[in-house]
Write a structure and sequence with these properties.
This protein has three helices and 26 strands. The protein has 341 residues and is mainly β.
Length: 341
């Protein structure tokens, strides 16, 4: 069944009413043609349920735009969607190509601050977000009584005499849906145990983020730094943009539901629009909240992650870093959802 226009339709009822399913829901290959994004491959997706988003194949199959009934739920940084050809790996130069969007992936050998670990330098949030996907494929078609839209591919982080990690990503939604599911399998193709760090840098922005918007998380909260601690009693509340205000970051130990799924959401009562991220806590034990209320850089990050804060070295010291055995793998599931009313 598909829910459209406030009622449920069977496959037969839908097929009676349309000549081509692209009339209702589609995946369309695309490519950016301007500026530093020139040549970046991607896909435009519409579910027919009000949800529209873009996936960038040359940027780790990450998600740029994310709109529901024409209203954006994500934040775009000032740098725009940049080709990986312009990536600068040193230190925090990740910020020169960080487009934000609904999802930017961090990892696979670092997430969080740039650092040095065991004699090797690791850049801010790692390299994977600036790596093109391989074996990219897409499909749109009936699977039983569901019309399924699916994009998949592989993103590799490897080096000679180093780790051989691959992220196998599948992005899935269905006709009439207001949500998208990202299922990632990280595999260690080498014969040595490997640390791996994986961050889902989910970035909510205006208009769902505005003065009075509320973050809702059932969790135990830990502030990072003095400025975050000074705002601990207001971590749930968004304010109007402030000139030159610093970021505030919090680590959440989220209480999962009976099925093991943890949840964080941002709700704007004034316009009746909300955004929700759901994920399996067993594989992603932490949630980082990035509260950035500055002018132009106005964003609320709700970020499931498998490691502790501070970068690879700090996470390893705190025994909060993922480990993959030789030829081992692990699967993560994250759901991004818009809701109204």
């Amino acid at each position: 069944m598909a829910n459209l226009l406030g009622r449920a339709f069977t496959r037969r009822e839908i097929e009676q009413r349309v000549g081509c399913m692209d009339q209702l829901a589609f995946i369309r290959p695309m490519a950016l043609t301007d500026g530093r994004g020139h040549g970046v491959r991607g896909f435009q997706v519409s579910t027919g349920g009000g949800l529209e988003f873009n996936v960038l194949a040359d940027r780790c199959l990450d998600i740029l735009d994310f709109r529901h009934n024409g209203r954006s739920l994500c934040w775009h940084s000032g740098v725009g969607p940049v080709s990986p050809a312009y990536y600068e790996a040193e230190g925090d130069n990740f910020l020169r190509s960080f487009f934000g969007g609904m999802l930017t992936t961090g990892g696979l050998t670092n997430a969080g601050s740039a650092c040095e670990d065991e004699g090797r330098a690791y850049p801010l949030h790692g390299r994977i977000a600036n790596t093109p996907a391989e074996r990219v494929r897409w499909s749109a078609g009936w699977e039983g009584d569901e019309y399924v839209l699916r994009i998949a591919g592989e993103v590799r982080e490897t080096r000679v005499f180093g780790p051989r990690l691959v992220l196998k990503r599948q992005i899935r939604t269905v006709l009439g849906s207001s949500s998208v599911t990202i299922e990632d399998t990280v595999e260690n193709e080498g014969f040595s145990e490997e640390p791996f760090l994986l961050l889902y840098h989910v970035n909510a922005g205006f208009p769902v983020l505005d003065e009075g918007s509320e973050v809702r998380i059932d969790s135990r909260v830990t502030p990072l730094g003095e400025f975050a601690a000074s705002g601990l009693d207001a971590w749930t509340r968004a304010i109007a943009p402030v000139h030159n205000i610093a970021e505030q970051c919090y680590v959440h130990d989220v209480v999962p539901d009976a099925e093991g799924m943890a949840q964080a959401e941002l709700w704007n009562e004034r316009i009746g629009l909300g955004f929700r991220v759901r994920y399996r806590k067993a594989e992603l034990p932490h949630l980082w909240q990035w509260k950035m209320m500055a002018e132009r850089d106005y964003v609320m990050g709700l970020e499931p992650v498998n490691c502790g804060p501070g970068g690879r070295a700090a996470a390893r010291a705190a025994n909060q870093v993922g480990i993959l055995p030789p030829r081992g793998s692990i699967t993560h599931r994250v759901v991004l959802e818009a809701f109204e009313g």
